[in-house]
């Protein structure tokens, strides 16, 4: 049987970070009809197709935070992102994760170089601001050099016989990692609210926006609800 490497994006994916990262939809369970049927379980009724009048029930559920029916729709994504984005992502405990291990493999090491540098925000110490007319290429080149010299040291340690689990400690936060994440729609909407926000770091925001693009065809009326509240989907 043919085996595909996990670092290859699935067919249904969206590229982010200027093409350096991606998020793909691996699998999903349920649909908007599933949400409505779950909401109607208490009346003992089920439908196979969505009717126009069902949209108002869907909107009612979201509006009134009657969210448990949304938990019956589940998505699995494959995510290729820098280590620091993975750190932010994995704070979302309601997802289930599995990740490629650097204790098993040292092949395919890649490193992120920001397509554009941003400046430190002055008021919010956690945030950044656009850097107008920045001559940032020399800085980005230095980051690329630093990534490569970390890789050089990593390889030197492996060549000297050091184990992978210790050698990986010298790899930078810009190292790209690949993981699978599975989440139900209710917790995914929570993630999207937090991570497609002005408060979130640009890099993880790119992934949140890409996820919206990937799931919109499967949950068009949910997306419309949020668009009607001024969100971009
Ligand atoms: C802009 C931004 C800045 C951030 N800055 C920092 C920071 O500086 N330092 C830092 O440490 N973190 C930071 N975080 C991470 C943040 O504190 C959350 O850990 C992260 O956003 C995950 O949110 P969550 O817990 O709501 O999500 P999930 O873990 O997916 O949980 C979803 C919901 O489930 C419920 N839940 C899950 N687990 C529990 C539990 N054990 N007990 C009770 N209820 C639970 C809660 O209602 C929760 O909102 C930041 C997040 C954002 C978006």
Describe this structure in words.
The protein has a single domain, classed as Gyrase A, domain 2 (2-Layer Sandwich). It has eight helices and seven strands, in the order E-E-H-H-E-H-E-E-E-H-H-E-H-H-H. The strands form two sheets. The chain has a five-stranded antiparallel sheet with strand order 1-2-3-7-4. It is globular, with a radius of gyration of 21 Å. With 233 residues, the chain is of the alpha+beta class. It has helices at 32-40, 54-63, 83-89, 137-159, 164-167, 185-195, 202-215, 220-228; strands at 13-16, 21-29, 74-82, 96-99, 119-120, 128-129, 176-184. The mean pLDDT is 93. It binds flavin-adenine dinucleotide. Flavin-adenine dinucleotide (FAD) is lined by residues 91-94, 187, 190, 194, 199-200. Flavin-adenine dinucleotide binds at residues 91-94, 187, 190, 194, 199-200.
Strands of the biggest beta sheet: in what spatial order?
Answer: 1-2-3-7-4
Q: What is the tally of beta strands?
A: 7
Strand proportion, as a percent range, falls in 15-25%
Ends apart, CA distance between termini: 38 Å
Report the C-alpha radius of gyration, rounded.
Answer: 21 Å
Strand-pairing-aware structural class: alpha+beta
CATH topology, which one?
Gyrase A, domain 2
Bound molecules: flavin-adenine dinucleotide
Low-confidence stretches are none
Count of separate DSSP helical elements: 8
Instruction: Look at the structure and give the CATH class.
Output: Alpha Beta
Provide mean pLDDT, rounded: 93
The largest sheet is: 5 strands, antiparallel
State the assembly state of the protein chains: single chain
Please, how many domains?
Answer: 1
């Amino acid at each position: 049987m043919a085996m595909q490497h996990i670092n290859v994006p699935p067919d249904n994916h969206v590229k982010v970070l200027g093409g350096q990262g991606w998020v793909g939809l691996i699998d999903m369970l349920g649909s908007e009809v599933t949400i409505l049927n779950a909401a109607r379980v208490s009346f003992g009724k089920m439908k196979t197709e969505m009717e126009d009048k069902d949209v108002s029930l869907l909107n009612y559920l979201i509006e009134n935070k009657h969210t448990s029916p949304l938990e019956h729709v589940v998505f699995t994504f494959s995510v290729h992102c820098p280590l620091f984005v993975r750190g932010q992502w994995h704070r979302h405990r309601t997802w289930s994760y599995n990740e490629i291990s650097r204790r098993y493999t040292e092949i395919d090491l890649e490193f992120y170089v920001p397509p554009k540098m941003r400046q430190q925000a002055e008021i919010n110490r956690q945030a950044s601001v656009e850097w107008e007319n920045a001559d940032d290429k020399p800085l980005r080149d230095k980051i690329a050099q630093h990534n490569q010299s970390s890789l050089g040291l990593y390889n030197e340690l492996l060549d000297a016989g050091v184990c992978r689990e210790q050698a990986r400690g010298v790899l930078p936060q810009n190292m790209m990692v690949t993981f699978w994440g599975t989440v139900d729609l209710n917790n995914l909407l929570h993630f999207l609210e937090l991570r497609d926000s002005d408060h979130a770091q640009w890099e993880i925001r790119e992934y949140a926006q890409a996820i919206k693009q990937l799931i919109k065809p499967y949950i068009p009326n949910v997306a419309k609800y949020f668009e009607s509240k001024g969100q971009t989907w």
